[in-house]
Amino acid sequence: RKVRRRDHVALDLFLVVGTTVIHILLRPEACELLGIASIKMMALTPSSDIRRRRRRNDRRDISRGSRSFVSCAITGATMIQLLILPRIRALGLVPPERLRRLLDSTHRGDAPIQLMPCVYDGLTARLVAQSGFNVTFMTGFGVSSSRGFPDTQLISYHEMLMHADSVAEGLSSAALELSPNAPVAIPCIADGDTGYGNAINVKRTVHGYARSGMAGVMIEDQVSPKRCGHVLGKSVVGFDEAVQRIRAACDARDEYEALFGVKGPLILARTDSLVTDGFEDAIRRCQAFREVGCDMTFLESPTSKDQMREYCERVSGWKLANMLEGGRTPILPPAELQSMGYTMAAYPLTLLSASIKAMRESLDLIHEGKSTCDKILQFSETKDVVGFTKYSKEEQGTNYDV
User: Fold this and answer.
1) Region of residue 374 (phi > 0: left; psi between -120 and 50: alpha; otherwise: beta)
2) Closest by CA position to 175, among listed 133, 146, 216
3) Pick from 131, 102, 134: which is nearest to 115 by CA?
């Protein structure tokens, strides 16, 4: 009888803990399937098994009950290994923590530099995720262009936030298609421009992007309205105001964690003062940004390898290289960037420029009355890229009728 009670209590504890972990870490549909399986397993548990045989030989009951319990434990361990541990190993955490671990792995030399083709809407986000990249960046230049404007801060914080939501949805839908049993969306850093006002506005910007699921937020020191870092006419705020912006962003990151119990978005602090105030001022700003708590720094528009290398040597922490084709900064291979000390390499306009070129060529062919077949995807492939294939399978395989 003592053995029966011990087995019964141990099994109940196992089921309670296992069910709780499953409901926390797995998708609802997986929980439903496991719930059905657990009902079947309950029929084999020691408690029910022993109850049905209560009048039989105790030794035989206990022997069978123990074997049943062992079988249940093995089954549970297998479920945890197959269904739960992959989620943990895949950083089943909030996006900032996933980003932090990726960057830390690169910084330690355990992983190659993180390549970030930049996105600006749900479609480009899906394409980057489908192509196997670990992280991406939502570019303000791309968002502005997709809305018909140059990158001169003609669009508002609200419009940027709308695109962040679209990017987050694109990354999530791609993750569900690529790995339905353990979906993990790749983290995205959002362009926060100047923060859209004073220090209080900066904090609101960080909080808003955090609620949209962004893993990081970039804040820069340009005068508002800002503009692309590789064009003429930009200017920066004073040193103290620049540092105040970054301190406010870091405060917002920490406040978000205090409010919700999860990591707030990592802060990427950018300076454009190299062009306006010289290299030494830019280094001084990056060092000050680190002192007030930023997670990453971004020295915009270095014009030589020597400047890039010295920046990496003199500024601590994770660093971003901006690989803008045709811009002021030398385009270097990823391995060389990592050897200098860079952690990330962003490609801000590659997707946008490539799409503009392809659309122009197709438009010329249409204008000339020629076939565009050699310029476009098969219709079936286009449907697959935008999600029709997954939608059709889910529609056919799921019944939501009440």
Assistant:
1) alpha
2) 133
3) 134
pLDDT digits (tens, 9 = 90+) for 145-163: 999 999 888 999 999 999 9
Q: Is the pLDDT of residue 140 over 90?
A: yes
Judged against a pLDDT cut of 70, whether residue 102 lies above it is answered with yes
| Dist. CA 243–CA 355, nearest whole Å | 37
Q: Does the global pTM surpass 0.70?
A: yes
Residue 74: Cβ-neighbour burial (10 angstroms; 0-12, 13-18, 19+): exposed
- Measured between alpha carbons, how far is 26 from 86 in angstroms, rounded to an integer? 11
CA 236 to CA 240: how far, in whole Å?
11
Tokens of 337: 């960037």
Q: What is the 3-state secondary structure (H, E, C) of the chain?
A: CHHHHHHHHHHHHHHHHHHHHHHHHCCHHHHHHHHHHHHHHHCCCHHHHHHHCCCCCHHHHHHHHHHHHHHHHHHHHHHHHHHHHHHHHCCCCCHHHHHHHHHHHHHHCCCCCEEEEEECCHHHHHHHHHCCCCCEEECHHHHHHHCCCCCCCCCCHHHHHHHHHHHHHHHHHHHHHHCCCCCCCCCEEEECCCCCCCHHHHHHHHHHHHHCCCCEEEEECECCCCCCCCCCCCCECCHHHHHHHHHHHHHHHHHHHHHHCCCCCEEEEEECHHHHHCHHHHHHHHHHHHHCCCCEEEECCCCCHHHHHHHHHHCCCEEEEECCCCCCCCCCCHHHHHHHCCCEEEECCHHHHHHHHHHHHHHHHHHCCCCCHHHCCCHHHHHHHHCHHHHHHHHHHCCCCC
Give 322's strand partners: 346
Please identify which residue in the block is written with the tokens 């069910």: 19
Partnered with residue 192 across adjacent β-strands are none
Averaged pLDDT score across all residues of the chain: 84
Q: What distance in Å separates the CA atoms of residue 112 and residue 105, rounded to the nearest whole number?
A: 8
- Is residue 67's pLDDT more than 60? no
Q: What's the confidence (pLDDT) of residue 33?
A: 40
Whether residue 112 contacts residue 137, with contact meaning beta carbons closer than 8 Å, is answered with no
Closest C-alpha among 102, 389, 60 to residue 266 = 102
Residues 159/189, Cβ–Cβ less than 8 Å = no
